[in-house]
Amino acid sequence: MAEKVTIARPYAEAAFSLALGAGALEAWSQALERLAALVTLDEVRSVLLDPKVDDESKAGLLLDLAGVDQQLPEAVRNFVQMLVKNDRVLLLPEIHALFVARKNDHEGVAVAKVTSAFALDEATRERLRQDLEAHFKKKLQLEITVDPDLIGGVRVQVGDEVIDASVRGKLANLAAALKI
Q1: Do 48 and 89 meet the contact criterion of CB atoms below 8 Å apart?
Q2: Most exposed among 80, 95, 118, 163, judged by the fewest C-beta atoms under 10 Å?
Q3: Are strands 109-116 and 154-158 parallel, antiparallel or unpaired?
Q4: Plot region of 23 (φ>0 → left; ψ -120 to 50 → alpha; else → beta)
Q5: pLDDT value at position 68?
Q6: Subcellular location, in the record's words (predicted)?
């Protein structure tokens, strides 16, 4: 996995530079997200890996399926063609992830991975986001998942920092304290 990320990094940096220069960070992010999702599909991967299909056809197929031609005609098309030509098109998921991380860093946004014991309504999500932004002193993008095994409460991870306010976490801390 580390090798893929290492190879993908210069491509992600190039895409970021192009997008930043064009003032189109969000549009590039969305296009890369669609492209990354496509290359994970078995049917698309089989065409991209088929040596009988020429590079132009591979790039055309990918761009047509992603619908990118109409939105970012030249820059994204050239980027995808270059990835296909260099046999790096299957790295699009890693390129997208690195691009988003670079974009978030540029915009001062961090991702908060929130795991809740139950589904959160929109008002609770917004209140949680505001509280977490005040705590971490940065703008946060919440990625919320539900894990009933937490019993109650939430677990939040922002970068390397973790706040475990779940019942399961508190019970684990209590069990560890009782063993001492």
Answers
A1: yes
A2: 118
A3: antiparallel
A4: left
A5: 55
A6: Cell membrane; Membrane
